[in-house]
Structures are given as structure tokens and as C-alpha cells.
Design goal:
There is one protein chain. By secondary structure, this protein is an alpha/beta fold. The protein has a single domain, classed as Purple Acid Phosphatase, chain A, domain 2 (4-Layer Sandwich). It contains seven helices and twelve strands. The chain starts with a strand and ends with a strand.
Length: 303
Amino acid sequence: MIIMSTPVVLSPTAKLIVAPIGDIHFNAPGHDRERFVSAVNWIAETAKKPDRVVLVPLMGDEFETMSSSERSGYRSARFHGSTRSWIENQLIKDLDSFIEVISPIKHLIPSVLSGNHNFTFQESSSGTLVGKSLSRVIAERLGVPALGVCGVNVLEMRQSKNGTGVTPFKIFMHHGFGNAGTKASSIRQMISLKEKFPMCDLYIMGHNHVKIGTTTEGIDFRINQKTGQWRMVEVVQAFVRSASFLKGYVEGEYVDDDTGSYVEQKCLSPAGLGVVTANVRWKEKRDEENHKRYVGFKVHVQE
């Protein structure tokens, strides 16, 4: 697992918006390009506001490339070299188009995760991309870390650019796994992450195209550095399941065992489309002498 850090300057009056985007399936027939472009533009405009800081981690499955079982079949299919080169060349064209569409928010993306739909370039015609997965190439194009299927980003939060005090805000990210296709089962899967990684502030997953934004509340006991006394502190942990930009059911599309959406073939739940956000502010508190103090963060989520 790769652990990275991102310095963030968040003034006491500003809000940090974490808007993970995943399961875009950019080159799929059911990709909702209009909704995706609208989301990109909304994020870009929001980030221009002086009291907003925006981060957009990419959560995997940016393209409709092969699943793990399909990749196994592809390797054993004995395609001609020219056929394999044509497939990889098309992926490179799709990649160029994707980078162009997300260019308004390129500077807001801190990391790239891999999904279960991925591809590793193998043909000499792909040049310097040979041996690299599509998700790693995306990360290189953006100039950010490729984390693999999961990773941690510790936000080093300061209230001013020259501030010396740093408060960590820990984000655990995983592309997702299994087939928790209903909202209830997906929420349970998300919250169970706390059993393995109990001390994070925000947990993000994708994969199953179910929009989720929820929190859990608890109490911790921490020492007051000024008085030396122990005190109760509210602890809020947030859970976000990034939505999708792949339409599961397409009006007017013919679907049977060989063609069309697997969502419709298996009668799965319709995809949750769009963006889910976690919104973070400094938590303000008055001490015994009525001085303003900032003790951690307030977090709320929005589907």
C-alpha cells in the first residue's frame, strides 16, 4: 500500500471539498458524456471560489477496458500482432481524449487508483508505454502518484501558507470489491473498513456504481495541552462511495445475452450517476477564557 501526503492550506472560513470520481468508463457505449462534462465544469468552477479548496482523486475504471477475466482471455486469444497494435492504438486515442476532457480539473487531481477494468500495454508500437498499465499512464500524464488498487492520502492541513501547525486529515481509498449492489449492503461494506483501518477521517470506495455519503459519530478522549486535563472529543468519520458515469439501462437499446449492458442482462440496480462529495471545515470551539480554538474538523457528506 502506498501512503502519500498532500499539503492543504484551508483558512478558518474556507471549505475543503473532496470530490472523488470513479467508474467513468469513458470509452463505453453507455458512458454519460454530457453528465461527465457537466461534473468536470462544476468542479472547475467551484474550485475558482476563494473560499473553496477542491481535491478530485480518481478512483479507477476510467475506461471500459478489460476485466481480469477478459484480460486472461485476451492474452490467450492469439490475436495477430497488428490486431493487438490496433487495440492499443485505439486506447491511446481514447486516453488523449480523456485527458483533454478533464484538463479543466487536472490541477485538482492528487492521485490515481487502478480499477478492475485495466490494461497493460505490450506491443512495441506503443513505445514507452510498454509494460505500463492504463491507470499508471493516466497518473504519469497528470504528474501525480499511481496508488494501485488502494492507498492512503494524508492531507497536511494548515490554516495559512506560512502556518507551522499541521493537523492531519487521513483518507483511505480503495477502488472497491465484491458485488454489494444495493445501498444497504454497500453501506455495510464501507463501514466495515473501519475494522481494518480504524483511525482514518474519510473512507472512499467506488466499483459498484452505488452513490453513498454517510458518517458515523463517536467519542475519543484527548488531553488538553494547556490545562493538562483529559476531555471528551467528538469524532466524525465519513464514508463516500463515488458514483458512476456509466448508464446501466439505456432507453431504446436492445439487450440480449451477447449484446448491450451487463447491468440490464443481470437486472442489477440502476447505476448511481454523478458526484458524491465530502465537505470539510475547521471545527471551532471557545476555551475557558472565551478564546477561539480550532479542534479538528467538521465533516459532512453530500450525494
